[in-house]
Every structure is written in structure tokens, then in C-alpha cells.
Amino acid sequence: MRCPFCAHDDTQVKDSRPAEDSTSIRRRRQCSSCGARFTTFERVQLREVTVVKSGDRREAFDRSKIEQSVALACRKRNVTQERIDQLISGIQRQVETAGEPEVPSARIGEMVMEGLKQIDSVAYIRFASVYRDFSEAKDFEEFASTVAEAAKE
Ligand SMILES: [Zn+2]
Predict the structure, then answer these.
(1) DSSP reduced 3-state for 52
(2) How far, in Å, from the CA of 12 to the mean position of ligand 1?
(3) pLDDT tens-digit series, residues 133-150
């Protein structure tokens, strides 16, 4: 696998172990040219799924994009990487087993919100505020108070 730092073609696997309840294999790799270390994951992909975005744009389902936005929402929150991986693996499995070759990006956004709601309310609000693209602060306040009330129940 190519080094993401210097683009050298030869990297060595230093360590390989099961992760996420053995649903994936985590490999630590080291570049033989620049010495940089990085991690790759091997996961089961059940089927190819296309994500339909706004304006009818289509792209292949890309787990790393969800990972980035969830990591941003969970920044400095007490949420472990393992918990995030489980959430995203759950969504990926749902998407791949739904039997539909295409899934709207809005549906994926909702699944992420549903998941984050169970994990961390601040991360949930952060993700939802970006995802729903609140144009007015008032909308956001209303939404945040709805969430606070829901948390009390
Ligand atoms: Zn390198």
C-alpha cells in the first residue's frame, strides 16, 4: 500500500490484529522510505452502494467521509474511537444490507444523528446543526431546547 505521506509504493505491515469485535482487521504499517506509520482497516464490504446527494449527484458510499464528520462532532467529547467505529460499522451494514443499490445522503445523515443521540448529546447537536444547515440562530435554539427536553425524559 502506498505511503500517504511521501507516496512511496512499499510499506510494511508491522502489526495486524482484529478490531471492533473481529468485524475488521487493523494493520499498523510503516513506510520503508520515510518511516511514517499509519493504520489501515480491512472490512467486509457486502455490496457496492451509491449515495445520492443533493442536486442528484452520485458517488460511491465512502465510510471515511462519515468518519470525518462524526470525528468532528465528537471532538473533545468523551467518546472513544471504538464507539465511533461501532456506530459507523452499524450504519454501513444497514446501508449494505438494505437491498437498495442507491441510498439518499439524507438517510445516512439521519442514521448518524440517531446513533449520536444515543452516544453524546453535544456531539449530536453539533452534527445536527451542521447537517440541517440552520440558517437562523432561532431555529437552532428551538432545536437545542427540544433536545434538552428529550434528554430529561
Ligand atoms: Zn513514506
Answers:
(1) strand
(2) 11
(3) 654 455 656 666 766 676
